[in-house]
Specification:
The structure is a homodimer.
Chain A lengths: L2 H27 L2 H8 L3 H7 L3 H10 L13 H18 L1 H11 L9 H20 L9 H23 L4 H12 L6 H4 L8 H11 L1
Helix pairs in contact in A: 1-2, 1-4, 1-6, 4-6, 5-6, 5-7, 5-9, 5-11, 7-8, 8-9
Chain lengths: 212, 212
Amino acid sequence: MAAQERAIRTRHNIMLAAATVFNERGYKAATIADILAKAGVTKGALYFHFPSKDELAQEVLAAQNRDFSVPDRPSKTQEVVDIVMLHTHRLQSDPMVRAAVRLTMDQLSTELDRTGPFRQWSDVTRERLEKAGAQGELLPHVLPGETSDVLVGSYAGVQSMSHALSEYQDLPVRVNALLRHLLPSIVLPSVLASVDIAGDRGARVHAEMLAA
Amino acid sequence: MAAQERAIRTRHNIMLAAATVFNERGYKAATIADILAKAGVTKGALYFHFPSKDELAQEVLAAQNRDFSVPDRPSKTQEVVDIVMLHTHRLQSDPMVRAAVRLTMDQLSTELDRTGPFRQWSDVTRERLEKAGAQGELLPHVLPGETSDVLVGSYAGVQSMSHALSEYQDLPVRVNALLRHLLPSIVLPSVLASVDIAGDRGARVHAEMLAA
């Protein structure tokens, strides 16, 4: 195994260990010693990759950003939906994404800057909504900045409720219901008629991206 | 001071101390010793009122339920809005409500049953939506159980985003935006035209209840 490949693998192991420890203990209570024990690496190796606990947490938080890139669609509204649905799928299936979301929603981690994920999600969504607007997909009164914040904020709560009530088992159903309530206030009915918001949309987009 | 009055005051002091400690340390890391130190009461007094840390947390969680009772209105949609707006006001002004919401949203507190607040909020909202439907205020396709879950879940996330980005300063503006996106999919336009969803609605309902 080449040195570079080994470094990438070590880095990934440390992140997975950190994600698990943050998940189990919360950001505040988690220690570097816990993460070292879980990752099975030396202190030197950890600090080579991540100078502090905060930088580690920020890297874990960033794991959810991979859901931003979805295939191009003629309808930009569909891209907004696909980002939400792909994230829903990965929240159910990827422990790193789960850890990232829990850190984001941890209102007790006051020392950790949790604003990044909210802002990034909102920026990515706003950009797509602006394109959707330019293409004439949106209702005339929509302000993309306001609407993207509503989408991101409301999604964050629906996933939290689904986590508390069913450990994410009912998440696709709840996300579908949320979109049925929000999209008619955002998108023209004629556009909405051909947007796919089915609960299994995320799994299909994920498969499409793996195949590509 | 009568013995009963003293007991009520002690109980309240313990709850306030517990709320502060849960807020600062999270449910998992908080200890009975921390709460005793903060409340300045004896172990015996604490266990007289609350048999366990879990019971204490459940009482703190229940603090948000006081927002369920709002004055009767001819429009039941307005009552749903008033519950949301009163809660928004108290989230900005009452440390106990803040602590209750943080505990509810603490996805790391896996030993704590956080399902109660989600279910209670949804039940109270569903009941009012059913009445609104019976009075002909709602669009014909609305399922009160589904819509109440969407309202409660999306609100939970919007408050979390507002907490992360502005320590709740922008909460009334965000809640107003959320309601403008959701209500047109729930309520008849002719009803919606006379529903008050202004950002200062919560403060006004609160003042009205204090005066009564």
